[in-house]
Amino acid sequence: MRLYLALITLSLIWGMSFYFIKVLVEGLGPWGIVFVRSALGALTLAAILLIQRKKIAWKSIPLKSLVLVGCMNALIPWGLIGISETRISSALASMVNATTPIFTSVLGVILFSVALSARQWTGILIGFVGILFLIDLDITQLFQEDLIGMGTMLAATVCYGFSSQYTKRHLQGVSVMAIALMTLLTSSLGSLVMMAVTDSFFPLHQTIDWNTIFAMVGLGVFGSGLAYLLFYYMIQAGSAEFATFVTYLVPITAMFWGWFLLDEQIPPLAIGGLALILAGVFLSTRKTAKKVHAGDHAVSSAK
Description:
The protein is mainly α and 303 residues long. It has helices at 2-14, 17-52, 63-84, 90-97, 100-112, 118-135, 147-170, 176-197, 204-207, 210-237, 240-244, 246-262, 269-302. Helix 2 crosses helix 8 (176-197) and helix 4 packs antiparallel against helix 12. It is globular. The chain starts with a helix and ends with a helix.
């Protein structure tokens, strides 16, 4: 139950992220967005540590692996997403982002010797078909879109797939807070370098207004800091495939926010898409959920 609650919460948070990126990208640029969301996210996690009066044992953690995950799960894909959203719509970007579970599964089999059952593959494919229903997109339209925008977005999903599997394999014993904080610190420093290299330091005095501040806080505090605590928890307690299934739910929650905040209409096909996505999630994650439930029961019995 905790895993599914984390999945739903994260999808609600990330359902607003592509909108926030679209709001910020013109004024801040792709790498400016990466820096702002990473820095605010890192400050949020640091504040949580101070409030809880906890410390991270930095000397005992695999620093190189954490830096690699920070690059592959934040710095590079976030920069690529920012670039893509200068060329394609946020709706299309979220649809392409929904290929993440497919790349996660394929890379898991090829690079990390992950064994997936036929039922799990079926669930992944059913979920992706649900995405197509959800946004009412003719697959042939993909070939009519900006190829650079599409390509950079696909490259971002590959990065997510690799980093999710790598985290599950190599960082299982590291605390979720340490992974999330190091991810955001790496991304903060790396984005500063990229801003210098690309000469894209943004003029803050020209871009900040209340809408911008709202988008910064939403993307940084919630969409980066708190979101990555949930994401890495789902990888460790569940699986890389389970965690990346959140990208199937993001278009649904984006539609929910549009309906709730902007009174936008939800297309009829979205209901069928939602049913397919939920069926796909159930098929692909039933085994994981059972394992986690059994583990929680064993811990409770031992107390």
